[in-house]
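explain this.
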Amino acid sequence: MVPPVPIASFHSVSKTYPGQPPALRSLDLDIARGEFLTLLGPSGSGKTTTLMLLAGFETQDEGEIELEGRSVGATPPWRRGLGMVFQHYALFPHMSVAQNIAFPLAARGISRAQRAIRVAEALAMVRLEGLGDRRPAQLSGGQQQRVALARALVFGPALVLLDEPLAALDRALREELQAELRALHRRLGVSMLYVTHDQAEALALSDRIAVLRQGRIEQLDTPARLYERPANSFVAGFMGENNRLPGRFLGLEDSIARVRLDDGPDVAAEPAAALAPGDACVVMIRPERIALAAAAAADLGGNAIAATLIEVVFAGDHLRLLLALVGGSGRPGASILVRRPAAAGLSGLAPGQEAALAWQPEHAMMFAAGS
């Protein structure tokens, strides 16, 4: 069986802006038909450059970009048939909402009668019925972004590009529009390429996420795999909160790595890199994976390690507990963050008190230092 042709593909695409490090370095990427793919990374990682190259607003230095299996190197943006949603809406202020949405239809020669029908359908799709006569300035930020989304979808594109479209909105509105985007994607089946630096947003929206660093894809995977099985310490640290504990690899015991933390105790973790004893490494463990008890570590035995509670922060549905591991000669060692449900309370702990920490070895991962 012949696999389906991706809706878009990048083949060894590179891009460098004058006087800057390469924005993209030989990028290979396929966007599957009907999927919601997110480009995630810090500033300067190449995610917006990737989007602009696909849209045709920038030209690659090397490599080839295909849409529907055909090279688009010589195709101008307006002939690529892509929907586009920007962070700052890019609506025409002198046009009404309906006129803004109808603009791509008029540019494609759609009749006035058909434009009216499609605009009404698009307004209903984004829950803006009855607002077609208003100007963009008369709408809230969330409503303006809905207009931008309707304009990008109204002509039925096979692929929609979204460049941090929710970044300018407050948290509650972002979460509301995330739910609407998910629903629209499921209902319409349109392919979406989404750019964000917000890890929680990427996890909530995506079928797959490409994590970029310095113009390269570090890992391309499902949200669950990225969170639970990161490819390296960069991905582990970028995808949500993660404690980063540097140390030295001691060896394997029953396929579990033993690591001596820098100025700290020995801990257990699942090896995610092939290292030799004595090699520098880093153990990554998520705050919610750490068990905490108001007890001396020696009393619990096993993999329990001693720590001192430094600070407690109330964060609504959970508590954030900052602790210091007990290092050599009883000195404070590395800091470690623990997250636990607010309803669970502190079990008698208070700042300054000794506590015991423990985790299942398979919930921690050992990576090579600097990975």
User: Anything to note?
Assistant: Residues 285 and 328 are 21 Å apart (CA to CA). The longest strand covers residues 243-253. Residues 171-188 form the longest helix (18 residues).
